[in-house]
Specification:
alpha/beta, nine-stranded mixed sheet, four-stranded parallel sheet, 36% helix, globular, binds zinc ion
Length: 462
């Protein structure tokens, strides 16, 4: 496969932009990158994509979502986390079927790909029946996306709103995680399995300890929600006498193979732990704003030398999987700082967070995150010849501040074309959208939460 004549924003170590650029892909990997005029005579292609006038970026990396929540869009609006989970998301999670999870994961992946995402981490913490995680992996495979299944574990939390259907026996959950890892990790060169002790209020001390032991045994990465909302701090102080990250660190969970999600409510000493233990961070600004959680101190975390990537979080708290919206939101949110300094987070930094730093957060920076020889061909072609993105003066700015998913024209994962000229090639999108609406409706009634759909108009709060 050859992608020819485009402007390539490589995100390589020198952050080169190549005009009239050419990418040669062989067996899923990038074999050559350079000027089209020089490379045309050296390489022959079975398939050539003409990217004249187009802009070619590394695929975006979404390091945190929950795919099942694709069925819950709009039901949890305008609620604090302490209502949102027990009233909407928890009851729905308790009623999930294998079919729901498969369709929701397909929907999530299509939404992701349409916004230029080629790699997604699905943090699956709801296991009301067996083998729901397997459905997600099958959806990743069907769509053709690069997917990480983080097998979530909830082994307590009934007193704070975790329904008994989603609280699991710890050993059974660990066994399932090991099974998933041995069955799927490394499959198709694009499926990975992680372990995910869910969040401080849903796990026991034993769960945190056992997660680290299993991760070390299998050389598996770890992810967990960390300091998202004040409620977690209270829970952690009450049960363990210290903050959640501090407790996880004491038990040895922290390390370069851990991805801490949110880190909104972190102290200076928490940031020091992130830095000294080389923990990676997934920043989910839209979810944090949606839930009034607060603003994660991303500039301070970055200054501590920590790798920060971007996530959408689940569609129940976003309410889509659009990474391009996340790019702009990230850049804008951190301009609201005490110093009134718009340079705290630049468009270049945001683009790094969504590509090469995303890859680094997943331990995949040798494989993806930039357009370089030897890396896997995860590539997005953008058409900026549209009203929202014309004129283009600086492509990174155009993508972060002006673009929308309507500019995403073609998406390539592992050398395979998944979306071409705006059309999904791997699945029948229309039938999945129809099924998504049906599954969502049925789940809402099974969970007994239809009052949030048929709700009365709420305007100003007095
Ligand atoms: Zn989450």
């Amino acid at each position: 496969l050859i992608v020819d004549n485009g402007t390539i924003i490589t995100l390589d170590a020198r952050r080169r932009t190549i005009t009239d650029g050419c990418i040669v892909v062989t067996r899923g990997r990038i074999e050559a990158v350079g000027k089209s005029s020089e490379m045309r005579k050296l390489h022959h292609a079975d398939r050539r994509i003409d990217a004249s006038g187009k802009f070619v970026f590394p695929g975006l990396v979404n390091t945190h979502t929950h795919s099942f929540q694709a069925l819950l869009k709009g039901l949890g609006d305008d609620k604090p986390y302490t209502d949102w989970f027990p009233q909407v998301t928890g009851p729905s999670a308790a009623k999930l079927t294998p079919d729901d999870c498969y369709i929701a994961a397909l929907l999530t992946c299509i939404d992701a790909i349409r916004s230029g995402t080629t790699c997604i981490l699905d943090f699956m913490y709801a296991h009301p029946c067996a083998d729901l995680s397997d459905e997600i992996v099958q959806a990743f495979r069907k769509i053709g996306i690069r997917g990480i299944l983080a097998r979530g574990i909830i082994d307590t939390g009934e007193d704070s709103g975790a329904l008994p259907e989603i609280v699991q026996d710890l050993q059974a959950a660990l066994n399932d995680c090991e099974r998933l890892f041995k069955t799927y990790n490394g499959l198709d060169d694009r499926i990975y399995v992680w372990i995910a002790p869910c969040s401080i209020w849903t796990v026991t001390r034993e769960c945190i300890e056992a997660s680290r032991i299993l991760a070390d045994k299998l050389k598996m990465h770890i992810t967990s929600h960390v300091s998202e909302v004040p409620f977690e701090r209270e829970n952690s102080l009450r049960r363990f006498g210290m903050r959640d990250l501090e407790f996880m660190d004491r038990l040895g969970l922290t390390g370069p193979d851990m991805l801490a999600v949110h880190c909104v409510d972190v102290t200076r000493s928490d940031i020091a732990i992130l830095g000294s233990k080389h923990v990676k961070v997934s920043h989910n600004p839209i979810c944090n704003m949606y839930m009034s959680s607060g603003v994660a101190p991303v500039p301070q975390i970055l200054r501590a030398g920590v790798t920060v990537s971007l996530g959408t979080d689940g569609a129940a708290s976003n309410n889509n999987q659009d990474m391009i919206q996340t790019l702009k939101t990230t850049a804008l949110l951190h301009k609201l700082n005490d110093a009134h300094d718009p340079a705290e987070i630049t468009c270049e930094k945001v683009l790094e967070m969504a590509t090469i730093d995303g890859a680094r957060s997943l331990g995949l920076d040798a494989e993806i995150g930039s357009i370089e020889v030897g890396k896997r061909a995860d590539i997005v072609i953008m058409d900026f010849l549209r009203a929202n993105t014309t004129p283009v003066h600086y492509p990174a700015s155009t993508l972060v501040y002006s673009a929308s998913n309507a500019n995403v024209e073609t998406v390539i994962v592992n050398g395979g074309i998944v979306l071409e000229n705006g059309r999904m090639l791997t699945v029948d999108e229309d039938s999945i959208l129809k099924l998504g609406q049906e599954k969502a409706q049925a789940l809402m009634y099974r969970a007994g939460i239809e009052r949030f759909s048929n709700r009365s108009w709420r305007s100003i709060k007095h």
